[in-house]
Amino acid sequence: MTALKKPRRTDDPWDLTERPHTKAKLRLLGDYFGRWLTIWNAPKQRGWASSDWYVIDLFAGQGVYADGDAKVSGSPLVYLEQIARVGSKLETNGIRVHLLLVELNPKNYEMLKNHVAEFMEAHSEVKEIVDIKLMKSNCNSPDVWSEISSLPLISNTPLFMLIDPYGFQIQRQTMDRLVAVDAATDILFNYMVSGVKRAQGIASKPEEQLTQRERTTLTTYAHFLGKDVTLDEDAESPQEYANAVFGSRGFYVVAYDMDYPDRVGTLYYLLFVTKNRKIADMARKMFGGAKKQNYAGQLRLGDTEQFTAEITFFAPDGAA
């Protein structure tokens, strides 16, 4: 008798079997965060930067994905693994890394708490250089902003933020508050262009034809965009949103277009955001190198310089 194939769990966001784009995103996160630790721990940066570094993840998830029978670390464990990799160097230089992990879903939160505890138990040496606060909350809620506001952040404080929302679940007013934080800030933000296109399609329908669910989607979408972003000209480009949220605050933006795994088109953009032009150029080159491989791990024709040149780059207002 022929064995039945295990059904694909494409509806489960924590199963990576059919999500090569999420695997690619996690690789990019690990690559950049490892560099972030190395850059800030260099003698030149230690000469002026605070020894307290902060990481904020507003959609921390479960902490672990499934990939067949294997486990793949989600963003919280990616941070911890990278910190453990250079832990002795950080400890020698008196560095302490503070993680703020926010997750609203109760099931995800409990799993996140367990996975983080398991990692810390297995890597006791990391306890000397890391402290972790978990919050079961909505990233737009006053309690999360109160927590962020209470952090001793100043202009020489290294701060990395991952903002990887489910759809449009981060509001524009929250984004505006985050980018206004006084710190040496780098951000990795998931701009879900596929969701934007769907919402724009709903917005084009006559008012009387909208379902209640579609009306709710449009309200959430409006809170995501803010009043100064219309996307009337090009819903597929993140430029208008990036300029309004980041460019107006002096940030450079490097946009990595994450393709659909099964058809032509862009699923979402990973926007890397920084005020440091050299770091922006480094991220652009890193993204270009990642573009050399497809989801199957096969090398594409062309060199890194070619792929780097194709990575979209937005300069802040008034900058070259």
List the helices and strands and how they pair.
Elements: H1 20-40, H2 43-46, E1 52-57, E2 64-67, E3 70-73, H3 75-85, H4 87-92, E4 96-102, H5 106-122, E5 130-135, H6 142-150, E6 158-163, H7 172-179, E7 184-191, H8 193-203, H9 212-225, H10 239-245, E8 252-259, E9 266-274, H11 277-291, H12 304-310, E10 312-314
Helix pairs in contact: 1-3, 1-11, 8-9, 11-12
Short synopsis of the structure:
Helices cover 41% and strands 19% of the residues. It contains twelve helices and ten strands.
Walk me through the structure.
The chain is an alpha/beta fold and 320 residues long. It has a single domain, classed as Rossmann fold, CATH 3.40.50. 41% of the residues lie in helices and 19% in strands. It has twelve helices and ten strands. The protein has an eight-stranded mixed β-sheet with strand order 5-4-1-6-7-9-8-10, with helices on both faces. Strands 2-3 form a two-stranded antiparallel ribbon. Strand 8 and strand 9 form a beta hairpin. Helix 1 runs parallel beside helix 3, helix 1 runs antiparallel to helix 11 and helix 8 packs across helix 9. The longest helix is centred in the first third of the chain and has 21 residues. The radius of gyration is 20 Å and the shape is globular. 32% of the residues are buried. The N terminus is likely disordered.
